[in-house]
Structures are given as structure tokens and as C-alpha cells.
Design the sequence.
């Protein structure tokens, strides 16, 4: 199938081209993101392939449909950037890669936890400048600390397994109870109980209307003072302004994020020579107890390979008229 592949970097092109045999699909790579202005690039392509920051909203889908696109192939798990109802109305099929790096993301969350706790990011800079003072680098043992996991699907479960290995207690909150987490000794509680009793809180639920700003001023009031908050899921799970207030008051002791609500304006690009206009993001970077990475939790060689394999399998399923297990559809309205 002829596929217009948007938001591609050199690493995407490498893995997609390597996994795609020359006779399989005709891939045309575009660097820009898909949106209303760039949709014209896909004119005549039956399929478009997109990532987390492409804007697959109703107007973009209408343009794509008018030029012959019938398939949207997501190279990611989250689909909050796609108007599924509009796609269904236009007869466009949407498929995704539901799991490509659960270990990679969970391991990155652990990396944030360890770095923030033991201040490795600060120690790295100090030592390079010949400053071997330990003042300000005091950490705590993870052993016997309580980790609250919000969202215990694939990634949340693996985080639980790893933190169990550190000797942590596990609290969990999810609309669905995962028996594998319970088998680890994890205890499901209501959200307020998790917030009040966790030393570390890590977010692993999807961004949906029910989870938008899950961590807001009210939630921050309920947390244990000095908590470590980790978000490798989606930026808008957190009300960033409220979290900044929590950091200023000391209620939040540490913040590690791989995602940010307005990240589409920033992440995946080299803006080192530019003036960043986002004052909320810039304020976050001023705290010594905040560690930010630019949506790289998924970024392992295994993940990029899995993404490419699943993407082509999804396209083949749809092309051959098979039902595709990774198709996503709009929820029927109540
Ligand atoms: P998953 O579908 O396996 O698990 C998500 C869990 O969240 C499920 O158990 C589900 O029941 C739960 N959930 C749904 N609604 C909830 C609610 N209202 N409250 C609490 N829990 C709720 O997904 P996953 O593969 O573990 O991925 C989790 C998230 O990680 C994804 O939604 C995605 O946004 C994010 N992600 C980030 C990266 C990255 O690079 N930073 C990469 C992949 C995925």
C-alpha cells in the first residue's frame, strides 16, 4: 500500500525502511506533522502513518478523506490526538500499536525515580566541574517505601514488578483490577487513599476525559507532603500550574516527567538556539527537584523495531480485508 508517513525523523525512517521489505509497502516519508495545512501532502495516498503530535482532528480527516485516504495508521499506543468519531463518520479505519515498549517506558520511569532521589542529574554536573561536595545530594532508601501506581495495565504492572524488586510496598488505583499486580502483593485502593499514603506516585493511565488533570489542586491537597510524582503517560494528566504551586510550597518534593501538556510546541525538536515562549515550562525547569525528559520513555531500539513490525502488520490486515486486532473505534454514544 502507498503510505504517507508523517512526523518522521532519521531514526523512524531507518527502522521503518529496514523492517519494510522493498516489495511490501510504498513508503513516502514527510518530516512535517500531519495537520490541516500539511494534509495535502497525503493527497492520493490510501493510508497515512502518524505519531503522537500529529493532529488527526475532524477537519484534517475530512481533507484526507476527500483526497482518498481510507486508513490512519498510528505508530503509537495513545490515540487522544485522533477524532475517532469523525474517522468513523468518514469511513476511515484507525489502527494503532497498542504495546511496543512497556518495559522501556517502565524502566524510564524507574530511571526518573532513581535520578531524582539520588540527584544523579545534579551530581553529574557537579563532578564535571570538580565539585565533590555532597551537600544537597541526600537521598532516601527505596526499600520499604510505598509506590502508588495509577493505571495498572501493561506499563503500570511492569513498574510494579521492578519496584517490588527494590522492596517497595505497592498501592494501586485503576478502574480495572489487574490480578497480576495483586499477585505481586499490590493493594488496590481508592484514589484518595493512594494519594494520602504513597511516597512515590507514578501515572500510567491513558489520557481520557475522566483522567484529564487527575493531579490537580484538590489531589495535591490529599498527597503526603514531600511526595515524588512521576508522569511518563500523558502531560494533561497533570495540571502543571497546580503542580508548580505544590513544588513551591514543598508539598511535592520531587517531580519527574517525560510528558508535558503543551509538549507538542516543544518536544522532538532542537530549540536550543531559540527563546522558549512557554513560561510554565520554563518555570518548571528552574526547580532543582524537577527532572524533565522530552517524551523519550518509549525510545529504545526494541520499541522502534516493534512499532515498525506492528505498523506493517496492521496495514497488511486492513489491505487484505482481515479484521485487525489493533483497530480502534469510537465508543458508541450512551
Ligand atoms: P494499558 O492500556 O495497558 O493500561 C492503561 C491502564 O489504565 C488500564 O489498566 C486501564 O484500566 C487504566 N485506566 C483507564 N482509565 C482509568 C482511570 N480513569 N483511572 C485509572 N486507571 C485507568 O496502557 P499502557 O500500555 O500501560 O500505557 C499507559 C499509558 O502510557 C498510555 O496511555 C500512554 O499514554 C502512555 N505511554 C507513554 C509513552 C512514552 O514514551 N512516554 C509510551 C507509551 C505509552
Sequence:
Amino acid at each position: 500500500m502507498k503510505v504517507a508517513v508523517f512526523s518522521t525523523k532519521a531514526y523512524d525512517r531507518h527502522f521503518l525502511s529496514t523492517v519494510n521489505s522493498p516489495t511490501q509497502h510504498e513508503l513516502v516519508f514527510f518530516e512535517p506533522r500531519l495537520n490541516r495545512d500539511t494534509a495535502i501532502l497525503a493527497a492520493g495516498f490510501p493510508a497515512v502513518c502518524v505519531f503522537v503530535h500529529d493532529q488527526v482532528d475532524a477537519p484534517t480527516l475530512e481533507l484526507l478523506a476527500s483526497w482518498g485516504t481510507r486508513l490512519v495508521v498510528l505508530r503509537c499506543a495513545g490515540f487522544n490526538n485522533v477524532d475517532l468519531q469523525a474517522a468513523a463518520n468518514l469511513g476511515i479505519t484507525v489502527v494503532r500499536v497498542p504495546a511496543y515498549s512497556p518495559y522501556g517506558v517502565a524502566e524510564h520511569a524507574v530511571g526518573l525515580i532513581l535520578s531524582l532521589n539520588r540527584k544523579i542529574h545534579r551530581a553529574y554536573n557537579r563532578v564535571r566541574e570538580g565539585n565533590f561536595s555532597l551537600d544537597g545530594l541526600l537521598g532516601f532508601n527505596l526499600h520499604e517505601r510505598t509506590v502508588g501506581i495509577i493505571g495498572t495495565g501493561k506499563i503500570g504492572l511492569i513498574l510494579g514488578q521492578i519496584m517490588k524488586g527494590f522492596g517497595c510496598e505497592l498501592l494501586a488505583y485503576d478502574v480495572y483490577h489487574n490480578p497480576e499486580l495483586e499477585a505481586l502483593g499490590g493493594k488496590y485502593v481508592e484514589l484518595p487513599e493512594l494519594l494520602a499514603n504513597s511516597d512515590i506516585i507514578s501515572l500510567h493511565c491513558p489520557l481520557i476525559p475522566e483522567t484529564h488533570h487527575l493531579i490537580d489542586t484538590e489531589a495535591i491537597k490529599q498527597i503526603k507532603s514531600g511526595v515524588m510524582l512521576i508522569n511518563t503517560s500523558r502531560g494533561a494528566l497533570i495540571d502543571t500550574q497546580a503542580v508548580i504551586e505544590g513544588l513551591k510550597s514543598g508539598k511535592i518534593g520531587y517531580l519527574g516527567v517525560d510528558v508535558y501538556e503543551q509538549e507538542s510546541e516543544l518536544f522532538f525538536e532542537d530549540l536550543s538556539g531559540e527563546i522558549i515562549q512557554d513560561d510554565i515550562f520554563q518555570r518548571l525547569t528552574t526547580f532543582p527537584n524537577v527532572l524533565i525528559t522530552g517524551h523519550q520513555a518509549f525510545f529504545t531500539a526494541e520499541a522502534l523495531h516493534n512499532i515498525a513490525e506492528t505498523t506493517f502488520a496492521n496495514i497488511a490486515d486492513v489491505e487484505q480485508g482481515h479484521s485487525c486486532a489493533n483497530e480502534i473505534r469510537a465508543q458508541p454514544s450512551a
Remarks:
- The domain at 102-292 is CATH 3.40.50.720 (Rossmann fold).
- Residues 77-78, 99, 102, 105, 150-156, 173-176, 204-207, 210-211, 232-234, 258-259, 295, 297-298 surround nicotinamide-adenine-dinucleotide (CB under 6 Å).
- Residues 62 and 172 are 41 Å apart (CA to CA).
